[in-house]
Design brief:
CATH class of the domain at 57-85 and 137-173 and 236-285 and 303-352: Alpha Beta
Bound molecules: zinc ion
Helix content: 25-40%
Radius of gyration: 23 Å
Shape: globular
CATH architecture of the domain at 57-85 and 137-173 and 236-285 and 303-352: 3-Layer(aba) Sandwich
Structural class: alpha/beta
CATH superfamily of the domain at 57-85 and 137-173 and 236-285 and 303-352: TPP-binding domain
Order of helices and strands: HHHEHHHEHEEEHEHEEHEHH
Length: about 375
């Protein structure tokens, strides 16, 4: 993000403002940025009504107007449910009820970093049980990819660890994986920290091996954030730069209950429209805190509502409806079709290599040997 001038250079001192007035086009975005920064961090600034109507149609007209170029998507487990990805760590999903066989001191221990370092077996057994058969992104994932292709996406903040954003074509810089990712793993030893990829980890998980670093024999852990671990540093640094500049926040598939992720909705400027696509309303301001002037939660329904839109549907349906209003529907459907076909043919190839690999293992031949026709 070379366009981001360091904040120290943006100090609104009289001197700086006088030095730059000639180039208005350059100055204005910076002033906007400062205004938004103050309004979001200090609760100052005016609340301008940007949408002509608090509906999906109103949001679509705003996007089409060309006035919004810094869309931030905040996404949660709900965008991956139609891909068959289980909600891996949230309590209350039925998952914790299945953990009795592991003799855990308490269910959450399986995702507790200290417990994991002593007893990694339950976590890896569960990872094997829950490992998705296929990594196939949803319509919603590809909608976010389309925002990127059209130059409208500032960044996607995801709570998911399923790597589907990457499979859909978002790159590391487009993404903040707030709760980490299975995409990479690292040796837990502070002196080593050797990185391993998803294929390596998958192989260990499915052969019931506890993954050990081949350099130092320490445990290797997927880069998902366990309880007791900090969120990635990038989450905090990018957040400070991104949210004051955001001109449309799209929140999808999350009930906004996990902090600090949920609090991000309050970090955009007071004028920034916020669209929620979810099966139920979420993130609404606590009435008491709202009265005291804190919060920054969503307001869809009150007399004072002026910028928050709730579209109650699945994430896929909501994205299709929005794409339709934007005139992108055919393009989105084509993208999904093509990408899914690509993944299917890739899966077929991998499966045939795997079955050959398994056959080859028994007679000590290498799994990478030239595939022979067997089926
Ligand atoms: Zn190591």
């Amino acid at each position: 993000f070379s366009d981001i001038t360091p904040l120290c250079k943006l100090s609104p001192s009289h001197k700086n403002v006088q030095r730059m007035p000639l180039d208005q086009s350059r100055l204005e975005p910076q002033v906007d940025f400062l205004r938004n920064l103050f309004s979001s961090t200090l609760g100052l600034g005016s609340a301008e009504k940007v949408l002509d109507e608090l509906t999906l149609e109103g949001v679509a007209r705003y996007i089409k107007s060309g006035k919004c170029k810094n869309i931030i998507c905040m996404v949660g487990a709900g965008i991956s449910t139609s891909a068959g990805i289980p909600d891996f760590r949230s309590p209350g999903t039925g998952l914790y009820a299945n953990l009795q066989k592991y003799n855990l001191p308490y269910p959450e221990a399986i995702f507790q970093i200290d417990y994991f370092k002593q007893h990694p077996e339950p976590f890896f057994a569960l990872a094997k049980e829950l490992y998705p058969g296929q990594f196939k992104p949803t319509i919603c994932h590809y909608f976010i990819k389309m925002l990127k292709e059209k130059g409208l996406l500032r960044r996607c903040y995801s709570q998911n660890i399923d790597t589907l954003e990457r499979v859909a074509g978002l790159e590391g810089d487009d993404l903040i994986e707030a709760h980490g990712t299975f995409y990479t793993s690292h040796c837990v030893s502070f002196c080593c920290r050797k990185e391993y990829n998803l294929d390596w980890m998958k192989e260990k998980i499915f052969s019931d091996d506890i993954p050990k670093c081949d350099k130092c024999q320490s445990l290797v852990k997927p880069d998902i954030v366990f309880f007791g671990e900090n969120l990635p540093v990038r989450f905090f640094t990018a957040m400070k730069m991104d949210f004051p500049r955001c001109d449309l926040l799209i929140v999808m598939g999350t009930s906004l209950q996990v902090q600090p992720f949920a609090g991000l909705v309050g970090r955009v400027s007071k004028s920034c429209p916020r669209l929620l696509i979810n099966m139920e309303k979420a993130g609404q301001a606590d009435p008491l805190l709202g009265m005291l002037g804190f919060g920054g939660g969503m307001d869809f329904d009150s007399d004072k509502a002026y910028r928050d839109v709730a579209h109650i549907s699945t994430c896929d349906d909501g994205c299709l409806a929005l794409a339709d209003l934007l005139g992108w529907k055919a393009e989105l459907e084509e993208l999904v079709k093509q990408e899914h076909a690509k993944i299917d043919s890739q899966d077929k190839k991998e499966k045939s290599v795997e079955s050959k690999g398994a056959a080859a293992k028994s007679d000590t031949a290498s799994a990478s040997a030239e595939p022979k026709a067997e089926e």
